[in-house]
Amino acid sequence: MKNILVLHGPNLNLLGTREPEIYGRTALADINGRMEARAKRAGVGIDFFQSNHEGALVDAIQEAQGKYDFIILNAAAYTHYSIALRDAIGGIDVPVIEVHLSNIHKREEFRHHSVIAPVVMGQVAGLGVESYLAALEAALLKMGVAE
Ligand code: DQA
Predict the structure, then answer these.
(1) Domain that holds residue 121
(2) Are 8 and 28 in contact (CB under 8 A)?
(3) Into how many domains does the chain fold?
(4) Which of 104, 105, 131, 132 to mutate to test the pocket of ligand 1 (most atoms within 8 A of CB)?
(5) What's 127's domain CATH number?
(6) Phi, psi (5° rounding) for residue 111?
(7) What is the pLDDT of residues 74-132, one digit of tens each?
(8) I need a labelling partner for 41 at 20 to 30 A (CA). Which of 94, 110, 112, 146 fits?
């Protein structure tokens, strides 16, 4: 059985009420629920982890090695400056898809740059909840389990 790990970074626990004009009104639990339903239909295992702490996310990435076939990661603000997350991704063989709800490229200048982009397989941004679902669909297709 294939397994996917979904990692959510800082402040994403507040989704639904946090700046809804940018991030929408869907709560994190609902995003996870939709991904879980899709993964289940494909017969794939899926786990979720949210943390506001950089080290906890580094630990989760390191521990994914040998346990997961894909990581879907919204590193949130860490996207823009965490060399520790970038090095953790670079240190494992598990492919990572970078996700953002908002289109980081048309927001403030400091959000345009992703320090993790050079070490991930690809990036999905700007589609709201569908960014996560598109990343999941891509992972399923890459693993050869999407219909
Ligand atoms: C985000 C974009 C980041 O710039 C921001 O810090 C976030 C969320 C997104 O999903 O659009 O917290 O990753």
Answers:
(1) 3-143
(2) yes
(3) 1
(4) 104
(5) 3.40.50.9100
(6) -90, -10
(7) 999 999 999 999 999 999 999 999 999 999 999 999 999 999 999 999 999 999 999 99
(8) 94
